[in-house]
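hey so i finally got around to running the thing on that chain from the lab meeting. sorry it took forever, my laptop kept dying and i had to restart like 3 times. anyway pasting the input first so we r on the same page abt which one it is
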Amino acid sequence: MTAPLSAVDHALVAVPDLEAAAKLWRSFGFTLTPRAVHGGGATANHCIMFRDTYVELIAATGDAASPLAAAIGARPPGGLGIAFATNDAAATVKALRDAGVPTQDPIPLERPLDLDGTVETVRFENVLFQANLPGLIAFACRHLTPALTRARHEWQLHANGATGIMEVVIGADDPSVFRPALEQLFGIAHVADAPHGLSVILDGIALAVMTPTGLAHRFGPKAVDGLAPLPGLAATVFGVNEPDAAGAMMDMGRVPYADHHHGLVVAAKHAGGMIVAFEEN
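ok and heres what got predicted. didnt touch it at all, straight out
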């Protein structure tokens, strides 16, 4: 049986102040999309776009109520969750249900996008499911207007040389708790034991679950300072052509970082509650 999910669409990062978060991520050398407000006005975002994936910095606006806004407000800033990619929402719903995962019908959503005074409508469908992934918001996302999501090529050009997400890391005291859900979502054969936890490769992006000891080993003991409470999304690793270029941008932005293993690491306390790392492609 084909696994219900096989690719990461984007990582979500909860921020209490969207403009302060945008300033911080620009100091890392990233280009951000313009501020966008979701339909209903409960949440707003800036995104860090790549060819096939992105990071969404998302904040509750206080202008309306929604389950997502409530979830953002109920937890400390930092990694919020992972959206997985789908090209066929209805087929994904069926595959998830066939795998025994309680799943809602696709939910159509939209938001306006102002491009040089012309207002376009970004449309997408979310597939919400209930899997045992403690500390995470997880769902599948189908983009109905993908050209608008990446409407500007320059949105994908980042001064730090980042070319995409290489790895997303969930932190958990007991990674084995995640195994049944990962096997349901991605297939038993794709879930592997790894040092200090578990690992799945999803269309070239690693999804790992690590203990706090594993996080400290992977990113350095100081990197976990300021990490949002676990379990939860603990780190995002970006591929860069030259780590030195990323370092130069952060030097300019006066961002504290450390050299570690194959790249550079910004501790969670300097990155809004989630570890941010840059490693050579």
